[in-house]
Design a protein that fits this description.
Nonspecific Lipid-transfer Protein, Chain A; 5 strands
Length: about 110
């Protein structure tokens, strides 16, 4: 099982290598607030300056979950939509729901 920090490094490499497509397909920013071991706060920018940074800045869509849930979703052992429906992922009240639906494009592993 990879750490969230390692996973965000992988995501950064993938989205920066496909920056034009990310801007076209996703065109938004995500903030991941991860609780528990390996947790922290990361911004995944697929809008202007494509990339990932450890930050507490605001974003178009803010998701909060346990770090373990994030890792499981990324590794494909948990379904993100199911985790959301079960309350394991919460969105901030001002999150862009349309953008949240594009999250799979960002989290595609390989």
């Amino acid at each position: 099982m990879g750490s969230p920090s390692d996973i965000f490094g992988e995501i950064n490499t993938r989205i920066t290598g496909d920056a034009a497509n990310m801007k076209d397909e996703v065109d938004g920013t995500f903030k991941f607030v991860l609780n528990g071991e390996g947790g922290g706060s990361w911004i995944v920018n697929c809008k202007d300056d494509v990339g990932v940074s450890e930050s507490t800045d605001s974003a178009d869509c803010e998701l909060t979950m346990d770090a373990e849930v994030f890792v499981q979703i990324y590794e494909g052992t948990m379904d993100g939509m199911q985790a959301f429906m079960m309350g394991q992922i919460t969105l901030s009240d001002d999150s862009d729901m349309g953008l949240a639906m594009k999250l799979q494009t960002v989290l595609e592993n390989g």
